[in-house]
Amino acid sequence: MFSSSSLPIQPLCIRIIQPSNLIKRMSVTLQCPGYPEDTLRSLAERLPCRETQLATLLALMGQPDQYSYPSVFIYGHRATGKSHVVLSIMKDLELPHASVDCVECVSSGLLFHQVLSAFFGPDAAALLPRCPSLSDFVRLYKQMSSNSPATQTRYIILDRAERMRDMDFSLLPALLRLQELVNDNVTVILLSEIVWEKFRPNTGCFEPLLFHFPDYSKAELVQILSWDHHPSYTPELYASYINILLGVFFSVCRDLRELRHLAVLNFSKFCEPLEKGEAKESDIHKLWKNIEPHLQRAMQTVYLREVSSVQWEQQQMDEKEATTLRVLSAHAHIELPYYSKFLLIAAYLASFNPARTDRRFFLKSHGKIRKTNFLKKHEKTSNHLLGPKPFPLDRLMAIFYSVVDSRVAPTASVFSQISSLVTLQLLSQVGHDDQLDSPKYKCSVSLDFILAISRCVCVCVRLLDLLALSLVIQSQVVRQERSLFTAVSNLHLL
Amino acid sequence: MWTPEIRHVASRKYAGQWREITGPAPVKMSKRRSAALTGAQGISLAQKLLRERLCHQKLPDQPVGLDSQYKYLLELLRRTAVHGESNSVLIVGPRGSGKTMLLGCVLRELMSLKEAQKNVLLVELNGLLQTDDKIALKEITRQLHLENVVGDKVFGSFAENLAFLLEALKKGDKSSSRPVLFVLDEFDLFAHHKNQTLLYNLLDVSQSAQTPVAVLGLTCRLDVLELLEKRVKSRFSHRQIHLFSSLSFAQYLDVVRAQLSLPPDFPDPKFSDEWNHSVTKLCEDKTVEEILRRNFNGSKDFRSLHSLLFLAVSRVSVSHSTLREADLIEAWRLISVDSKANVLHGLSILELCLIIAMKHLNDTYDGEPFNFQMVHNEFKKFIQRKSHSIHKFEKPVVMKAFEHLLQLELVRPVDSGVCKVQREYQLMRLMLEHGQVMEALQKYPQCPTDVKQWALSAFG
Known about the structure:
The structure holds two protein chains of two kinds.
Chain A: E1 14-16, E2 26-28, H1 37-46, H2 51-61, E3 71-75, H3 82-92, E4 97-101, H4 108-120, H5 122-126, H6 134-147, E5 154-159, H7 171-176, H8 178-182, E6 186-192, E7 209-212, H9 218-225, H10 235-249, H11 256-276, H12 284-300, H13 309-318, H14 338-352, H15 358-362, H16 377-382, E8 391-392, H17 393-403, H18 412-423, E9 427-430, E10 440-443, H19 447-456, H20 461-474, H21 481-493
Parallel strand pairs in A: 3-6, 3-7, 4-5, 5-6
Antiparallel strand pairs in A: 1-2, 8-10, 9-10
Helix pairs in contact in A: 4-6, 9-10, 10-11, 10-12, 11-12, 14-17, 14-18, 14-19, 20-21
Chain B: H1 3-12, H2 15-22, H3 28-32, H4 39-54, H5 67-83, E1 87-92, H6 99-112, H7 114-119, E2 121-126, H8 133-143, H9 147-150, H10 158-172, E3 180-185, H11 187-190, H12 197-208, E4 213-219, H13 224-227, H14 230-235, E5 240-242, H15 249-260, H16 269-284, H17 286-298, H18 302-313, H19 325-335, H20 339-345, H21 349-365, H22 372-385, H23 395-407, E6 411-413, E7 428-430, H24 434-443, H25 449-456
Parallel strand pairs in B: 1-4, 1-5, 2-3, 3-4
Antiparallel strand pairs in B: 6-7
Helix pairs in contact in B: 4-18, 5-6, 8-10, 10-12, 15-16, 17-19, 18-19, 20-24, 21-22
Subunit structure (chain A): Component of ORC, a complex composed of at least 6 subunits: ORC1, ORC2, ORC3, ORC4, ORC5 and ORC6. ORC is regulated in a cell-cycle dependent manner. It is sequentially assembled at the exit from anaphase of mitosis and disassembled as cells enter S phase.
Domain Orc1-like AAA ATPase (chain A): 46-189
Pfam families (chain A): AAA_16, ORC5_C, ORC5_lid
C-alpha cells in the first residue's frame, strides 16, 4: 500500500502555527517519502513541541519497505511524550505494530501472545503452547512470517521496558536482536524512563540505538498546557493562570501530567473573583493574590495525594477560610488513650537520647552536674540522622514513670498498650518475636508527631523542656555547653 | 526421500547469498529499465541497499581482515563435510567483532561445494532461545526433520535420545551417516545448563566417531573454557579461533569507504558514481576523519561503526541527497551523549538541590551511604544560610522529590531487600559522579546562582 513507486514523491514542507500568540511561530519541514502528506501534517499538529523528535524518528524508520535498525531505545522523563509520539506515528501512518506494556506482562508468555496476535491474528497466538518459551515464540514467528512475509517494517513497541529486566534473563537480549533471529523486517522499540546503562546484561548484548526525548522547557509547558483552555474564557487569561501555576510549582515538579491535573483542579477557584464580579480579566495581580495561598495549600495536600481531588473540589465549594483539611495520613488525626501518649513520648526519648544521659535528665536528684562533654564525638552526628535506636522494655518503663505526672501501677493494662502501639506501627519491635523476657522496641514516629501529641496532652512545663532538650541534641550544634547547663539545671529546679 | 527437503533446510538461510555467488541478483525491474532513475528513486534505492547492509547485517562478499581465520575454519568444515572427520571448534571474540559474519561466509562457501550441498545437515542452536536442554533437544529434532520418526517415544536419558536421532540419519543412506554441523550461538549460556548434558553429549559424539559431527561454538567470553566441566573440557578439542580486530586506522577508513559505497551493479551508474565520489571526498575530510578516529579509539568493532553510519545515512533525503559532514557530526553527537546528563537536565530545582546535597555528603563523608534525613538536613542548612531564591519546602514535598530520584535510579538503596527500616532512615548511595553533577549544573537551564555557588563551595 505504501510502496514507493505508487505515491508522488515530492518534498514536504509543513508550517505549524501555534494557537496562542504568546508563543513564537515555529516552522518545521518534514520530509518523508513513502507516507501520505496530509497524514504527516495532521500528525505534526497533534504533537506540539515534539517536531524534531518526530522528524528524527521518521528518518530512522525510513520508507516502509526498507529495513530499519533492529532495536531502538527511547528514554526520557515521565510525561515527555514518548509513548504518545510513537503510538501516534504507528496509528496515523497505519503501520503494522504490536504495542505491549511490560507492566501488564507478568510472564513472558503474555508478551509473546500479544505480539503474535497483533501481527498474525489470534489464530497464530492460539498455536502457542501453554507456557511458551522464547524458543517456541521464535519458531512460531518464523513459521508465520514465512507464510506472510513482511512487506513493511513491523514494529514491536515495549512500554516501561525497565520491567523487562526482572523477567527472564534471556528475553531482553533476544528481543534486541529479534530481526536477526527471525530473519524478518521487524524493529523493536523500547520506551523507558531509566537510562540504558542500567539495562545492559553482564556479558553484553546487541546495543540498540539510543534516542533521548528531552524534557519540556517552561515556555513549552505553557504552550502545551494552554491547549486545554476553558471555552468561556480567553486563552490569554488561561495562559496567565498557567504562568502563575508554574511560578508556584515549576521548581518542585516538571511533570506535565501532574501540572495538568493541578491546573484543571484549581481553575475554578482562580475564576471565582471574575464570576463574583470582584475583578476583571486584566487584574492579574488581584487574581494572583486570590489564588496563590490556595496553590500553596494544594502543594501540601493534593500534590502529595493527601486528599483526593474530589475532596479538594468540595473544600473549594465550602468556602471556609481556615479549615483544617482532613488529610489521608493517619498521623494527623489518630486518637490515642492517655497513657499511650506518654508511652509514645517516652519511647521517642528513649530512642533518640543516648542511655548515658537518662540519669541526668530523668532523675530528680543525681548529684553534681559536672561540666563534661556529655555528647561523645560519634553521637553528635548520629542521634537524629541515623534513625531511632532500639531500647529495652525496662528503660522505656523507667522513663515512662518519670515522665508521667501521676503515680502509675505497673498493671497489664499499661503493658498491653505497648503492644497496641506496636500494632499501630507507631513502635516497632526489634529482634525476634520469641524473645519474651526483654523485648526491644524502636520508635517509628517523627518529632512533629510527638510534638502534636504532647500539645494535646495537658503536659507540664517539665515535659516540654525535656523535648526541647531533645531538640538541642538533635541540632548537633551544641554551641555552648553553658547554655545547655543552664537548661539542665533549670529543669531540676522544678 | 530425505535429500531434497534437507538440502532446502540447509541452504535456506544462505539462499540469498547463494544467488550472489552464482549470478547477479539485482531488482528485476531495473534490468529492463536503462540507466537513469530520478533523483528521489535513486536515493530511495540507495537507502534500501545501505540499510540492508548496515541494519540487516547482510553478509559481505569477503570478510575483511580475517583471512587466516577464514581459511582455517573453511578447511576444518570441509574435512567434516567431505571426508567425514569429526571436529569441534570455538570461535571467540568480543561483541560485534564478526563471529556470526565469519561463520556465515564460511558456510556459504561450504554449501557451494557439490558434495557438501548434497550431504551436510545444519542444526543451529542459540543459547538465548534454547535455555534448557529439553528445549534444545526438541529443537534439534525439529531441525533434523525427525519429529515423525521420534513420534511419541520416551527416552531414558538425553544420550539415548541423541543417539537415536543420529542413528535415524543413517537409515536414508545405508553406507554411512550424513555429517551434521551443530552451530551453538552464545555457547557460554549452554555451559550454565544443568550438568551441561547437551554439551557433554555433543562433544562425546564428536569424539567417538560414530557420525561425522562438527560442533561450532560462538561466544563472546574469553574465559569460556573455565566454564566447562572437566569431563566436557576433556572431550573438547581445544581448538579456538580468536577474532581480535587487528585493523589499523587506515584499514578502518577503507572499511568505512567500502561500507558506504554503492556496488557496481547499481541500476543507475551515474548516480552511484556521484555517490561514491562524494563518499570518497567525505572520508578525506578532516572533521570526519577526527570523528572516525574517536570512534576507532573507542571500539574497533563493526557494530558501533554500523550504528554511526546508519544514523548518518538516515538523514539523507531528497533535499540533501549526498552524505555531508554535518550528518556525521550530528550522528556522532547522538551516539556520544551522556544519558545521565540528559536525565539531570530534566530535573526540577528541588531535585537538583537534593542531588547537590548528596554530592556534598559524599565529599564530606568520603562516599559513605546516607539516608533521606541527612540529605534533608543538608538542604535545610542551605536554605537557612545561603539561599535567596529557594524557599522552604515542607518535608513531605521534599520526600516526594527524593522518591522521584529513587524511581529514576539516580539514588539506590544499599540493601534493597530490607524494609524494616523507616523510609527516611534507609541508607542510600548516589549513582552519579562528582564530575557528572558539576557538568549537569553548567548545562541546567536557568539555574539560580545561589544553587550554583552552593555546589561549587567546598564544604556545603
